[in-house]
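Weekly structure sync, notes
Attendees: PL (lead), two postdocs, one rotation student
Agenda item 3: pending single-chain targets
PL asked that the sequence for the first pending target be pasted directly into the notes so everyone works from the same version. It is reproduced below exactly as submitted, 484 residues in total.
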Amino acid sequence: MKEFKHFINGQFVASSSSFENRCPADNKLIGTVYEAGKAEVDTAVKAANAAMKGPWGKLSLNARVALLYKVADRINERFEEFVDAEAQDTGKPKSLARHVDVPRGAANFKIFADVIKNVPTEAFRFEGPDGVQATNIAHRTPKGVIAVISPWNLPLLLTTWKVGPALACGNAVIVKPSEETPASTTLLAEVMNECGVPPGVFNVVHGFGPASTGELLTSHPGIDAITFTGETATGEAIMKAASVGLRDISLECGGKNSALVFADCDLDKAVAGTMRSVFLNCGQVCLATERVYVERPIFDEFVSKLAEAANKIKVGPPDDTEASMGSLISQEHQQKVLGYYELAVEEGATVVLGGGVPDMPDDINSGAWIEPTIWTGLADGARVVNEEIFGPCCHIRPFDNEDEVIALANDTAYGLGASVWTENSSRAIRVSEQLEVGMVWVNCWFLRDLRTPFGGAKQSGIGREGGVHSLEFYTELKNICIQL
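Predicted structure, written out during the meeting:
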């Protein structure tokens, strides 16, 4: 049995309270996770603030960049250990962790090290009406101690997406990973020590959210800014906590993302892309497609082809090399998704595919398994069409014209992402500009250039990260005015 301890000021420490960590693919016990209380959070915050005043705060930019490159290289040297950690915690196929989670998790450190070295600040020469002259120079300084609240669906990738730029900008961080997925963040702490990151710069506290570690951390006055990825209700609670002391926030929250499939699309390309956007990572992706709108002339063919492709998905445990979809994150989440599957039938859906739990071998039958599911026939006001499910499922609805589908896609409280499938470039731009979301993909999905802005509109979040936008959150931009 493993022990997942807190990592505070460069050392692994236990605490008096703990809970179990189980693999969702077979419900077997992985180990014990310690829950941080007020004492552990206080110690971590003090260590992080001390690091900002110590060697870390005085480290040159080039030395900091070299250190982050070293961290990325060490993750890749321990690649299979991170793959095992991600797969065991989440139940996802190891093939997915090898392709997405670990390589992109490592790359985040190098990407943002390059950004901080190469993105300029502004400078202005000023001459007043009275002849006074001055030069103004913008200068970035670290924001301070950043609380990083990361989710369970892509644990390493979404933790380093925040930790990478935060450290590149010279901040110290305290990471609270999801209670469901403590392993890869704990491994990352080992890497930080191996690479010589000074004590207190990178800290990890495990635990839950409300009335636990998360609430203690986000309400702590020693925290200068908070970055969070997760559900909207938790984002609202964090926003309230951050309002005390006017701490800055970056929130990437829920989504009910749409795909708009026009009759002039490349149908095979649209089906393949929608397959990925609906079912990748068992549908547990913030940007996953749950609403598919298909122009009526190709509706029946699209539904048939998507169902045929989804029916070939192999559901299996992490070590199954033929599996393309793993389990859900937990039995609790399985019950939530199953509840929506049952609700869809109650609301009048036609179940095209799935709708239940697959039969699995006896040794893993107690895992959090779920079937890939496709519905048609639901009313626009149905709960299944409007509420985020976060599972491998989608509802497909026909539409007749451009204005109609734009209105349908925008008829949601969320505004994270969308995909548009059309071979008409004018339509692609015209439609994309009218969608009320933070990100639109045309004839693709989740194709990410890390220099571009990432974030949502409406109840899907506040702020943008990626490239220079991350620098804007993780630094304070001051102006230095020099009279000549």
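Discussion points:
- Residues 257-449 form a domain with the Aldehyde Dehydrogenase; Chain A, domain 2 fold (CATH 3.40.309.10).
- The first strand starts at residue 2 and ends at 4.
Action: rotation student to compare against the earlier draft before next sync.
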